Amino acid sequence: MLLPGVTLIAHRLPAPRTTAAPARVPASTTPLLTVDLATVTSSYGALRAVLPGVQLHYAVKANPSLMVLRTLARAGARWDVASPGEIDLVLGVDPDPSHLSYGNTIKKSADIAYAFARGVRTFVLDCARELDKLTEHAPGSEVLVRITTSGRGADWALGTKFGCGEAEARELLLEAVRRGHRVGVCFHVGSQQRDVHAWDEPLATTARLRAAVRRQGSDLSTVDLGGGFPAHTQVPTPPIAAYGLTIVDAIATHLGPDLPRIIAEPGRFLVADAGELEAEVVLVTERGGTRWVYLDIGLFGGLAETLEEALRYRMTAYRDGAPIEGPVGGVVLAGPTCDSADLLYIKHRPLLPLDLRDGDRVILHATGAYTTAYSSVGFNGFAPLREVDR
Ligand SMILES: Cc1ncc(COP(=O)(O)O)c(C=O)c1O
User: Fold this and answer.
1) N or C: which end of the chain has fewer CB within 10 A?
2) 272-389 in CATH: which number?
3) pLDDT at residue 10 tops 50
4) DSSP letters for 85-131
5) Which keywords does the record carry (predicted)?
6) Whose CA is nearest to atom 1 of ligand 1?
7) Is the pLDDT of residue 349 over 90?
């Protein structure tokens, strides 16, 4: 409705006449994620080496690019998928559906039926209604019951939305056995987990659940250790060998000597360190005595894990292809969009050169996981994050 006295005049304006050649959207080489596939292969080998006998199901959500999937397929990986889209993607690279586990606890009946029709036979759930859906649409499949974890020690906790307590898990396992399913237990200790002991408590719970299943004359077919193995961010983490030693020890203590199939679902560890994200500095300015740096990528362009400053990426500033030398100072770092939520770091201020100016480049290291997949389709008209291999 128009305000009194206001009339629309747009229709009286003459149509604009264009004489100049149409302008082009300026070409931009950034933001760009470069993934080093040799590093993906070596990370896979490193995790295999420290977790002997554990099948690695790559959590496809971390980086679903075909080049990453093909690299991991060549290395011998199996797959943790979260949706029919990921099932199709993976089966295009590795046609054996027995290599897939459907790790999402929240599934439409139609999606369960689709997965089953494509040959997937391992599904994760954490409540009775999902078990009903599964018995109906994926009869006889293996059911992994996800138990909750505290998420302590993780930079990106996954405990609130998923998993059930021990008593509920016992009920679900016993009911699943009664319905003719093979059963297992699964958990996720939280992503970017910095405490190597985080797997101990859920493995102790798993052992008690196993005892209950055995009393019913059955056994666990699989124990799934989830993901959580860390990337190299600004916050130090123990070496991967320390994770391996501690977890192997906890498995032997709680589940040995007669082990079920043990699998893990690493995402971040396999791909994060392989990725370097190049961004352009759009603006450097002072606001109330603080230096603000705006990049051409932010929360909506793929850096969603900076939410609440959870993941603190390492950074290097470049000019004309060389690192910028000289004194550095803390900055507030923000993305390029017209949304005030598009703030990367305001509490933990990254150190960047005092001489930094627009047109310079900032490389964000260890960004091969959870970046391209999170990138919006075009918020504010910015294109989704591109990815190339090296
Ligand atoms: C079910 C499930 N498995 C595995 C992963 C991979 O975890 P990470 O990247 O910490 O290894 C995730 C991550 O969100 C997940 O949700």
Assistant:
1) N
2) 2.40.37.10
3) no
4) HHHHHHHTT---GGGEEE--S---HHHHHHHHHTT--EEEE-SHHHH
5) Decarboxylase, Lyase, Pyridoxal phosphate
6) 103
7) yes
Give the ranges where 256-382 is alpha helix by DSSP (H).
Answer: 268-271
Under 8 Å between Cβ of 229 and 58: no
Q: How far apart are CA 312 and CA 366, in angstroms?
A: 10
The per-residue pLDDT for 128 is: 98
How far is it, in rounded angstroms, from Cα 154 to Cα 147?
A: 17
Handedness of CA 241, 245, 250, 252 (dihedral sign): positive
Which residue in this structure is represented by tokens 């910028």? 324
> Which of 60, 68, 80 for a ligand 1 pocket mutation test, highest count of atoms within 8 Å of Cβ?
80
Interatomic CA distance for residues 132 and 109, integer angstroms: 10
Helix (H) or strand (E) run with residue 142 in it: strand 142-146
Contact 194, 228 (CB under 8 A): no
What CATH number should be reported for the domain whose range is 37-271?
3.20.20.10
How much is the average pLDDT of 272-301?
A: 97
Read off the pLDDT of residues 27-84 as tens digits, 9 standing for 90 and up: 679 999 999 999 999 999 999 999 999 999 999 999 999 999 999 999 999 999 999 9
Mean pLDDT of the chain: 94
Report the sign of the C-alpha dihedral through residues 198, 200, 201, 205, in that order.
Answer: positive
347 Cβ neighbours under 8 A, 6+ residues apart? 309
Residue from 55, 61, 160 whose mutation best tests the ligand 1 pocket (most atoms within 8 A of CB)? 61
